[in-house]
Amino acid sequence: MLLAWPAAAQKAGVGAWENSSNSILSWIEDTPGLGWYYNWRPDQMYHRGRQNRSVEFVPMIHGAGDVNKRIRSDRKVTALLGFNEPDGHTGGHQAGMTVDKAVKLWPKLERHGLRLGSPATTQSGTLGRNSWLRRFMDQAEGKGLRVDFIAVHYYSEDGNVGDFERWLRAVHREYGRPVWVTEFAHIDWSRPAAASHAGNAAFARKAIAMMERLPFVERHAWFAANPYPWQGRAPQINLLRDDLTLTPSGDAFTRAVSRAAGLQVASN
Fold it and tell me: Which InterPro entries does the entry mention (predicted)?
């Protein structure tokens, strides 16, 4: 059984974690059009002192070691993200687990009684008969397990938004469920130094506009708000510097999500 989803929820979100001064939640709360965030954990973002929490927190059960952790949120939680890149290596950003293990643990995620997203595989592990996600979904459907929406990651090496849209449509055709894009950016991870804020600014504007008009894309979240250390340096995909000043990518992102929110209000 699929759980219903409230109408007119804001699509735009972000993946983020605490910065050095534990102040990033204030930026999340103050950014117009930003409807939700997640931090790859089951507990909400930490913030020093009193801070309004109007932006929805979506918890994640990152990997096998998190399945028994409590969800902690001051706001009511409505959705839960499943394992993060289980087809990758164990440790750090990726959960790393077999399909059989993920299927065995899945009932523990179902017991939260929340709308539940699929494991978010790497791009190459999402489509195809032998892909990690297809094999997981075949077993889940065969055992009557619940997966309410498909969570995906997409990193464009060339910034082509048309290819991104075609890939999203293929995911929707393959699994017949709503889609959440929980990580996206313009970067080739084999050449991270080639990423530029100018390229990501253009990609953010076009990709957000594209996803906002696709009815089956329920939510999307940029990767990431923070500088992300990778191979000794932070590639130019971050929206914010550690002091919360906007990068060119961040400026384009905030303008795009604000415009999308305004269009949504107008259409409603």
Answer: ASL1, Asl1_glyco_hydro_catalytic, GH
Backbone angles phi, psi at 171, to 5 degrees: -60, -45
Query: Kind of pairing, strands 150-156 and 79-80?
Result: unpaired
Contacts for 128 with CB less than 8 Å, ≥ 6 apart: 134
State pLDDT tens for residues 124-145.
999 999 999 999 999 999 999 9
The alpha helices in the chain, defined as continuous H runs, are: 24-30, 99-110, 132-142, 161-175, 197-213, 248-267
What is the bridge-based pairing of β-strands 115-116 and 150-156? unpaired
Q: Distance of CA 59 to CAs 73, 77, 117, 200, 262, Å?
A: 8, 8, 11, 26, 26
The number of CA neighbours under 13 Å toward the Cβ of 181 is 29
pLDDT in tens, 53-74: 999 999 999 999 999 999 999 9
